[in-house]
Amino acid sequence: MQTIIDWLATLQWERLVPELIGKALGFLTGFAASWFLLFRRRLNAIQRMQSGDSDDFIFQMHCLFPSAGNDDQFVLLFRNVAPKTTLNDLYDNIAVREVLKEIADQTTLENPILQTQGTLGFELLNDAVGHLAGLLASTPFKREAWLFAMTCEDRQVVRKKCVRCFLIRPADLERFLDWQWCQTNVLVEKPWHWFRVVALHRIACEWQLEQQMAIQEADRGQDHEMPLVDKQVRHDRVRMLSLGLNQDEIPVGQPHRIDWERHLPSLEKMGLRLAAPRPDEVSPEEPVPPPS
Q1: Residue 160 included in any domain
Q2: For residue 230, is pLDDT > 70?
Protein backbone atom coordinates (compact mmCIF):
# COMPACT_ATOMS: atom_id res chain seq x y z
CA MET A 1 0.00 0.00 0.00
CA GLN A 2 2.84 2.34 0.87
CA THR A 3 4.39 1.59 -2.53
CA ILE A 4 1.25 2.73 -4.31
CA ILE A 5 1.11 5.91 -2.24
CA ASP A 6 4.76 6.65 -3.00
CA TRP A 7 4.13 6.06 -6.73
CA LEU A 8 1.16 8.40 -6.75
CA ALA A 9 3.23 11.01 -4.97
CA THR A 10 5.84 10.92 -7.73
CA LEU A 11 3.31 11.63 -10.51
CA GLN A 12 3.25 15.09 -12.05
CA TRP A 13 -0.36 15.87 -11.28
CA GLU A 14 -0.13 19.35 -12.74
CA ARG A 15 0.35 17.69 -16.17
CA LEU A 16 -1.60 14.47 -15.69
CA VAL A 17 -4.92 15.99 -14.64
CA PRO A 18 -5.23 18.37 -17.64
CA GLU A 19 -4.28 15.55 -20.03
CA LEU A 20 -6.87 13.19 -18.57
CA ILE A 21 -9.55 15.87 -18.66
CA GLY A 22 -8.63 16.83 -22.23
CA LYS A 23 -8.74 13.24 -23.48
CA ALA A 24 -12.02 12.59 -21.71
CA LEU A 25 -13.55 15.72 -23.20
CA GLY A 26 -12.23 14.78 -26.64
CA PHE A 27 -13.75 11.32 -26.39
CA LEU A 28 -17.10 12.68 -25.22
CA THR A 29 -17.10 15.34 -27.94
CA GLY A 30 -16.34 12.80 -30.66
CA PHE A 31 -19.00 10.43 -29.36
CA ALA A 32 -21.59 13.22 -29.21
CA ALA A 33 -20.70 14.46 -32.71
CA SER A 34 -20.93 10.95 -34.19
CA TRP A 35 -24.27 10.35 -32.51
CA PHE A 36 -25.57 13.73 -33.67
CA LEU A 37 -24.49 13.17 -37.29
CA LEU A 38 -26.02 9.70 -37.33
CA PHE A 39 -29.24 10.97 -35.77
CA ARG A 40 -29.36 13.93 -38.16
CA ARG A 41 -28.79 11.65 -41.13
CA ARG A 42 -31.69 9.45 -40.10
CA LEU A 43 -33.84 12.51 -39.44
CA ASN A 44 -33.04 13.93 -42.88
CA ALA A 45 -33.91 10.60 -44.49
CA ILE A 46 -37.28 10.58 -42.72
CA GLN A 47 -37.95 14.19 -43.73
CA ARG A 48 -37.09 13.44 -47.36
CA MET A 49 -39.51 10.53 -47.40
CA GLN A 50 -42.27 12.57 -45.79
CA SER A 51 -41.77 15.45 -48.25
CA GLY A 52 -41.71 13.13 -51.26
CA ASP A 53 -38.12 13.96 -52.20
CA SER A 54 -36.31 10.93 -53.61
CA ASP A 55 -33.70 9.83 -56.12
CA ASP A 56 -35.97 7.19 -57.65
CA PHE A 57 -36.24 6.45 -61.36
CA ILE A 58 -39.67 5.12 -62.34
CA PHE A 59 -40.57 3.67 -65.75
CA GLN A 60 -44.27 4.00 -66.57
CA MET A 61 -46.37 2.88 -69.53
CA HIS A 62 -49.31 5.09 -70.56
CA CYS A 63 -52.19 3.82 -72.65
CA LEU A 64 -55.77 4.76 -73.49
CA PHE A 65 -58.44 2.24 -72.54
CA PRO A 66 -61.76 2.59 -74.44
CA SER A 67 -64.59 3.69 -72.18
CA ALA A 68 -67.56 1.34 -72.00
CA GLY A 69 -70.58 2.67 -73.83
CA ASN A 70 -68.75 5.54 -75.54
CA ASP A 71 -66.26 4.87 -78.32
CA ASP A 72 -65.07 8.49 -78.31
CA GLN A 73 -63.91 8.49 -74.69
CA PHE A 74 -60.88 6.80 -73.15
CA VAL A 75 -59.56 6.12 -69.67
CA LEU A 76 -55.92 7.09 -69.18
CA LEU A 77 -53.99 4.24 -67.57
CA PHE A 78 -50.38 4.39 -66.43
CA ARG A 79 -48.54 1.43 -64.95
CA ASN A 80 -44.99 0.71 -63.86
CA VAL A 81 -43.35 -1.65 -66.34
CA ALA A 82 -39.99 -2.24 -64.65
CA PRO A 83 -38.56 -2.27 -61.13
CA LYS A 84 -37.74 1.22 -59.98
CA THR A 85 -34.09 2.12 -59.68
CA THR A 86 -32.21 5.01 -58.12
CA LEU A 87 -30.06 7.79 -59.46
CA ASN A 88 -26.95 6.25 -57.87
CA ASP A 89 -27.63 2.84 -59.44
CA LEU A 90 -28.28 4.21 -62.92
CA TYR A 91 -25.39 6.69 -63.06
CA ASP A 92 -22.10 5.86 -61.36
CA ASN A 93 -20.54 9.24 -62.18
CA ILE A 94 -21.07 11.73 -59.33
CA ALA A 95 -20.82 14.74 -61.65
CA VAL A 96 -23.50 13.29 -63.93
CA ARG A 97 -25.82 12.80 -60.96
CA GLU A 98 -25.45 16.43 -59.95
CA VAL A 99 -26.16 17.61 -63.49
CA LEU A 100 -29.28 15.46 -63.71
CA LYS A 101 -30.57 16.72 -60.36
CA GLU A 102 -30.06 20.30 -61.51
CA ILE A 103 -31.91 19.67 -64.76
CA ALA A 104 -34.74 17.89 -62.95
CA ASP A 105 -35.22 20.84 -60.59
CA GLN A 106 -35.70 23.15 -63.57
CA THR A 107 -38.72 21.31 -64.99
CA THR A 108 -42.18 22.81 -64.76
CA LEU A 109 -45.71 21.68 -65.45
CA GLU A 110 -45.52 23.55 -68.76
CA ASN A 111 -42.32 21.76 -69.74
CA PRO A 112 -42.00 18.50 -67.77
CA ILE A 113 -39.32 16.97 -70.03
CA LEU A 114 -35.75 17.18 -68.74
CA GLN A 115 -34.00 19.77 -70.91
CA THR A 116 -30.82 17.83 -71.64
CA GLN A 117 -28.16 19.67 -73.61
CA GLY A 118 -25.07 18.71 -75.57
CA THR A 119 -23.12 15.48 -75.44
CA LEU A 120 -23.63 15.03 -71.70
CA GLY A 121 -27.40 15.34 -72.01
CA PHE A 122 -27.39 13.00 -74.99
CA GLU A 123 -25.53 10.37 -72.95
CA LEU A 124 -27.86 10.86 -69.98
CA LEU A 125 -30.79 9.90 -72.17
CA ASN A 126 -28.90 7.05 -73.80
CA ASP A 127 -28.06 5.47 -70.43
CA ALA A 128 -31.69 5.59 -69.29
CA VAL A 129 -32.96 4.26 -72.63
CA GLY A 130 -30.39 1.46 -72.63
CA HIS A 131 -31.23 0.52 -69.04
CA LEU A 132 -34.94 0.24 -69.80
CA ALA A 133 -34.40 -1.62 -73.07
CA GLY A 134 -32.25 -4.14 -71.23
CA LEU A 135 -34.86 -4.69 -68.52
CA LEU A 136 -37.60 -5.32 -71.10
CA ALA A 137 -35.51 -7.23 -73.64
CA SER A 138 -36.96 -10.65 -72.78
CA THR A 139 -40.64 -9.84 -72.24
CA PRO A 140 -43.06 -12.26 -73.98
CA PHE A 141 -45.34 -9.52 -75.31
CA LYS A 142 -45.58 -8.32 -78.90
CA ARG A 143 -43.04 -5.63 -79.69
CA GLU A 144 -44.31 -2.25 -80.84
CA ALA A 145 -43.03 1.27 -81.26
CA TRP A 146 -43.15 3.29 -78.04
CA LEU A 147 -42.09 6.85 -77.33
CA PHE A 148 -39.79 7.47 -74.38
CA ALA A 149 -39.51 10.78 -72.48
CA MET A 150 -37.61 11.49 -69.27
CA THR A 151 -39.69 13.80 -67.07
CA CYS A 152 -39.82 15.32 -63.61
CA GLU A 153 -43.21 16.78 -62.86
CA ASP A 154 -43.71 20.06 -61.04
CA ARG A 155 -43.65 19.76 -57.23
CA GLN A 156 -46.49 22.29 -57.02
CA VAL A 157 -48.90 19.60 -58.17
CA VAL A 158 -47.03 16.32 -57.57
CA ARG A 159 -45.99 15.31 -54.05
CA LYS A 160 -43.34 12.72 -54.92
CA LYS A 161 -40.28 14.19 -56.56
CA CYS A 162 -38.60 11.64 -58.79
CA VAL A 163 -37.64 11.13 -62.41
CA ARG A 164 -40.45 9.44 -64.31
CA CYS A 165 -39.66 7.93 -67.68
CA PHE A 166 -42.85 8.01 -69.74
CA LEU A 167 -43.69 5.39 -72.35
CA ILE A 168 -46.59 5.93 -74.74
CA ARG A 169 -47.46 4.77 -78.24
CA PRO A 170 -47.10 7.40 -80.98
CA ALA A 171 -50.76 7.15 -82.00
CA ASP A 172 -51.87 7.79 -78.42
CA LEU A 173 -49.52 10.73 -77.94
CA GLU A 174 -50.79 12.31 -81.16
CA ARG A 175 -54.26 12.44 -79.61
CA PHE A 176 -52.92 14.52 -76.72
CA LEU A 177 -51.88 17.27 -79.13
CA ASP A 178 -55.51 18.42 -79.24
CA TRP A 179 -56.15 20.05 -75.87
CA GLN A 180 -59.89 20.24 -76.46
CA TRP A 181 -59.91 16.49 -77.10
CA CYS A 182 -57.99 15.93 -73.86
CA GLN A 183 -60.61 17.81 -71.87
CA THR A 184 -63.67 16.22 -73.41
CA ASN A 185 -62.59 12.63 -74.10
CA VAL A 186 -60.02 11.62 -71.47
CA LEU A 187 -61.13 10.10 -68.18
CA VAL A 188 -58.81 9.14 -65.32
CA GLU A 189 -58.71 6.44 -62.67
CA LYS A 190 -58.24 8.86 -59.77
CA PRO A 191 -59.32 12.52 -59.49
CA TRP A 192 -55.75 13.71 -58.85
CA HIS A 193 -54.49 12.15 -62.10
CA TRP A 194 -55.56 15.28 -64.00
CA PHE A 195 -51.97 16.58 -63.91
CA ARG A 196 -50.81 13.60 -65.97
CA VAL A 197 -53.15 14.63 -68.79
CA VAL A 198 -51.52 18.07 -68.77
CA ALA A 199 -48.04 16.52 -68.78
CA LEU A 200 -48.85 14.29 -71.74
CA HIS A 201 -50.30 17.24 -73.64
CA ARG A 202 -47.12 19.23 -73.10
CA ILE A 203 -44.96 16.24 -74.10
CA ALA A 204 -47.02 15.88 -77.28
CA CYS A 205 -46.39 19.54 -78.11
CA GLU A 206 -42.65 19.08 -77.54
CA TRP A 207 -42.64 15.95 -79.69
CA GLN A 208 -44.36 17.83 -82.51
CA LEU A 209 -41.70 20.56 -82.37
CA GLU A 210 -38.94 17.95 -82.49
CA GLN A 211 -40.49 16.35 -85.56
CA GLN A 212 -40.65 19.72 -87.29
CA MET A 213 -37.01 20.43 -86.45
CA ALA A 214 -36.00 16.98 -87.72
CA ILE A 215 -37.66 17.77 -91.06
CA GLN A 216 -35.81 21.08 -91.25
CA GLU A 217 -32.49 19.38 -90.48
CA ALA A 218 -33.17 16.78 -93.16
CA ASP A 219 -33.77 19.57 -95.67
CA ARG A 220 -30.41 21.10 -94.70
CA GLY A 221 -28.65 17.74 -94.97
CA GLN A 222 -27.82 17.50 -91.25
CA ASP A 223 -29.74 14.32 -90.48
CA HIS A 224 -26.79 11.99 -91.25
CA GLU A 225 -24.31 13.39 -88.74
CA MET A 226 -22.69 10.68 -86.64
CA PRO A 227 -23.24 10.80 -82.85
CA LEU A 228 -19.51 10.16 -82.29
CA VAL A 229 -18.50 13.38 -84.00
CA ASP A 230 -21.64 15.48 -83.48
CA LYS A 231 -21.72 17.50 -80.25
CA GLN A 232 -25.47 16.87 -79.98
CA VAL A 233 -26.24 20.51 -79.25
CA ARG A 234 -29.78 19.59 -80.23
CA HIS A 235 -31.04 16.06 -79.84
CA ASP A 236 -34.45 14.45 -79.59
CA ARG A 237 -35.66 14.25 -76.01
CA VAL A 238 -38.60 12.09 -77.05
CA ARG A 239 -37.10 8.84 -78.31
CA MET A 240 -38.64 5.99 -80.30
CA LEU A 241 -38.11 2.48 -78.88
CA SER A 242 -39.20 -1.03 -79.84
CA LEU A 243 -40.58 -2.70 -76.71
CA GLY A 244 -42.89 -5.53 -75.75
CA LEU A 245 -45.33 -4.36 -73.05
CA ASN A 246 -48.47 -5.82 -71.57
CA GLN A 247 -51.39 -3.88 -73.02
CA ASP A 248 -54.16 -5.88 -71.36
CA GLU A 249 -54.42 -3.52 -68.39
CA ILE A 250 -57.90 -2.44 -67.30
CA PRO A 251 -59.06 0.56 -65.24
CA VAL A 252 -59.06 0.18 -61.47
CA GLY A 253 -62.35 1.34 -59.99
CA GLN A 254 -64.77 3.87 -61.41
CA PRO A 255 -63.31 6.28 -64.02
CA HIS A 256 -63.49 9.97 -63.16
CA ARG A 257 -64.27 12.93 -65.36
CA ILE A 258 -61.96 15.87 -64.71
CA ASP A 259 -63.46 19.21 -63.75
CA TRP A 260 -61.14 21.33 -65.86
CA GLU A 261 -62.91 24.59 -65.07
CA ARG A 262 -61.74 24.16 -61.48
CA HIS A 263 -58.12 23.32 -62.36
CA LEU A 264 -57.41 25.74 -65.21
CA PRO A 265 -57.28 28.92 -63.03
CA SER A 266 -54.65 27.36 -60.77
CA LEU A 267 -52.66 26.26 -63.82
CA GLU A 268 -52.75 29.80 -65.15
CA LYS A 269 -51.34 31.08 -61.84
CA MET A 270 -48.43 28.66 -62.30
CA GLY A 271 -47.74 30.10 -65.75
CA LEU A 272 -49.54 27.53 -67.90
CA ARG A 273 -52.45 29.00 -69.81
CA LEU A 274 -54.72 26.44 -71.45
CA ALA A 275 -58.08 26.97 -73.13
CA ALA A 276 -61.18 25.95 -71.22
CA PRO A 277 -63.44 23.26 -72.71
CA ARG A 278 -66.15 24.54 -75.01
CA PRO A 279 -69.60 24.28 -73.40
CA ASP A 280 -71.04 22.47 -76.41
CA GLU A 281 -68.43 19.69 -76.17
CA VAL A 282 -68.57 18.61 -72.53
CA SER A 283 -71.30 17.91 -70.04
CA PRO A 284 -70.01 17.54 -66.46
CA GLU A 285 -73.29 16.01 -65.33
CA GLU A 286 -73.04 13.19 -67.85
CA PRO A 287 -72.52 9.91 -65.92
CA VAL A 288 -69.36 7.96 -66.56
CA PRO A 289 -70.03 4.31 -67.42
CA PRO A 290 -68.19 1.68 -65.35
CA PRO A 291 -65.24 -0.16 -66.93
CA SER A 292 -66.03 -3.35 -68.76
Answers
A1: yes
A2: no
